[in-house]
Amino acid sequence: MHILIIGAAGMIGRKLSERLISENALAGRKIETLTLADVIAPQAPAFAGKTVLETVDLSLAGEAERLIETRPDVIFHLAAIVSAEAEADFEKGYRINLDGTRYLFEAIRRVHEKDGYRPRLVFASSIAVFGAPMTYPVADEFHTTPLTSYGTQKAISELLLSDYSRRGFFDGIGIRLPTVCIRPGKPNKAASSFFSGILREPLSGQEAILPVDDSVRHWHASPRSAVGFMLHAATIDLEKVGSRRNLSMPGLSATVGEQIDALRRVAGAKAVSLIRRERDDNIARICEGWAPGFEAKRARALGFVAEASFDEIIQVYIEDEMGGRL
Amino acid sequence: MHILIIGAAGMIGRKLSERLISENALAGRKIETLTLADVIAPQAPAFAGKTVLETVDLSLAGEAERLIETRPDVIFHLAAIVSAEAEADFEKGYRINLDGTRYLFEAIRRVHEKDGYRPRLVFASSIAVFGAPMTYPVADEFHTTPLTSYGTQKAISELLLSDYSRRGFFDGIGIRLPTVCIRPGKPNKAASSFFSGILREPLSGQEAILPVDDSVRHWHASPRSAVGFMLHAATIDLEKVGSRRNLSMPGLSATVGEQIDALRRVAGAKAVSLIRRERDDNIARICEGWAPGFEAKRARALGFVAEASFDEIIQVYIEDEMGGRL
To answer: What is the distance in angstroms between the Cα of A40 and the nearest Cα belonging to chain B?
Structure first.
């Protein structure tokens, strides 16, 4: 079996590669070839099978064709520029997040038209396809009215994925990831960075800034769950999914206050004392447009699983990023 | 004021032109120039102001720019290939219905970036953005999961329209038209053709074929209402519409049986006897994927108005297409 990961150098892409390599199989089939593609050169993993590293920009002519001519059985499409960048650079956002995705889908369609090639395609979508006002919890049938260009590009890609799947060009499934928490690494410029920061930094004895009120409610899943969604999406029986191929993934709806309570239970009051409240009206306003949580009934019924408590999300971070101990 | 109608040679485009010419004003401003554009040469109407006729294919390079450099104040974008053709010719559908629309939006954006040009843009969307299963009536917040490429292209255009409007490139509003009934003219190959045919042909003493059961429920508005939606959309205060710029228009939910009852009331049993029941399983199956009706709460609250009974829809046809008498 040949697996292609586009966007392999990103945080989820790396964790997905590691997991696939450690299992060395997908749906009971041995992985012969793993192609890791990204705009920046992906690092070579320690993999017993064949590894192909590709530096590609899907939005350039011929790049998607080059990837697809090797006929991967399963394609994970995680490549995107993030929300803040897509908002700051309108043209780049549409070029990378929309045109790049469409070129990939078109490259697959052209091979399909020739000889019936029909890979499984797992697309990383986002809860950014939704925009306020939203009722809580958001139902599976709620409309996608994004309030960012990034969310618009993801929502359009979802529509294309459904239509290309309906036409039989590929077997597509789009999974709307919750905010991934706790992200490993350093704080970044994303407005959502603090959701991870207020846990990650105190767990390492460092100060973190909380720019919003404790009452802010949001929708979370761990990196481990995100990878789990990808693998389940790659192997699930799509007959059961039917024509509505884009699914809001399960997750945990929690307020910032509930995140902090979990931190106190797991790491103690000293960790909590490292959170410094410093309100940022701009970030607080952006948060108001975000989803507080989803029913995710369909995804749960289809076997997608996420954490049930923030204690668990913190525990996953300690296990996967801190060697299992504080 | 300069008004541009793209798709002016179509049925709604012609009626919209006629109405604008007869009123010779929009929102109290005199119409100085009316530009009628279509892939087939539009006919010159009897208009006292300046008329410009343009034969254009928006999907060709430079065509949208050429239209936009004349800086129309209001743009009606009705151009599209129909559902059956978009389904039969995948590439043509995406080229005309998606790329053509995007090129138009991009042409406006480029002029906007230069000098702040920001026209009102009214986009003719469709209830085809929705796909079965649907509850009846469909709520304003119901998701768009189209089951055709045409519906996919309209749903994507809606998303682009919202994002371009949010960015301030133009003042866009998308209006999801119900099935237009009674369409004047001859039967066509659209699966929905019979909804008009079973009324139009008997009203002229001709036989019509009914391919589905009397219980089939669907969503209708007259051509006159469709034009009314366009004009209202062109003049409405968009502050009131907010960020969700795509609206399901009001209409009349009726079963085929209710259509026939109205025909009996308006034109008598003899007209009804001209309906020949000849089931077509293919058309019946297609109908199952269509919307039975909508709440259209937002559109109604914003002042969009449609017919309240099928008697009224038939009466509109008699007035507008038959000189007011049977």
So the answer is: 29
Q: Is residue B256 included in any domain, yes or no?
A: yes
Q: Are strands A252-255 and A217-221 parallel, antiparallel or unpaired?
A: antiparallel
Q: pLDDT digits over A162-200, tens only? A: 999 999 999 999 999 999 999 999 988 788 999 999 999
Burial of B139 (0-12, 13-18, 19+ CB in 10 A): middle
Residue A49 lies in a domain: yes
What pLDDT is attached to residue A229? 98
> Over the Cα atoms of chain B, what is R_g?
19
Tokens 């396809």 correspond to A129
Show the beta-strand stretches assigned E in chain B. 2-6, 25-26, 29-30, 33-38, 50-55, 74-77, 120-126, 171-177, 179-180, 208-210, 217-221, 246-248, 252-255, 275-277
- HSE of B235 in the Cβ direction (CA atoms, 13 Å)? 15
Among B156, B167, B243, the residue with its CB nearest the CB of A159 is: B156
Q: Which residues neighbour B314 within 8 Å (Cβ) at sequence distance 6 or greater? A: B182, B199, B203, B262, B263, B266, B267
Q: What's the CATH number where B259 sits?
A: 3.90.25.10
Q: How far is CA A33 from CA A41, A53, A75, in A?
A: 18, 11, 12
Select the residue of B141, B147, B167 nearest A142 (Cβ to Cβ).
Answer: B141
CB of B163 within 8 Å of a chain A CB? The answer is yes
Task: Name the token pair of B127.
Answer: 């209830």
Same domain? B239 vs B258:
no
Return mean pLDDT, chain A.
Answer: 96
Look up the domain containing A121 and give its range: 2-178+222-248
- Looking at the domain assignment, is residue A293 inside a domain? no
Model pLDDT for residues B298-313, shown as the tens digit of each residue: 999 999 999 999 999 9
Domain count, chain A: 1
Enumerate the active-site residues of B.
Answer: 150
Query: Does some domain include residue B186?
Result: no
- Output the domain CATH number for residue A90: 3.40.50.720
Q: Are B208 and B111 contained in the same domain?
A: no
| Number of Cβ atoms within 10 Å of the Cβ of B121 | 27
Does B91 touch chain A if contact means CB atoms closer than 8 Å?
no
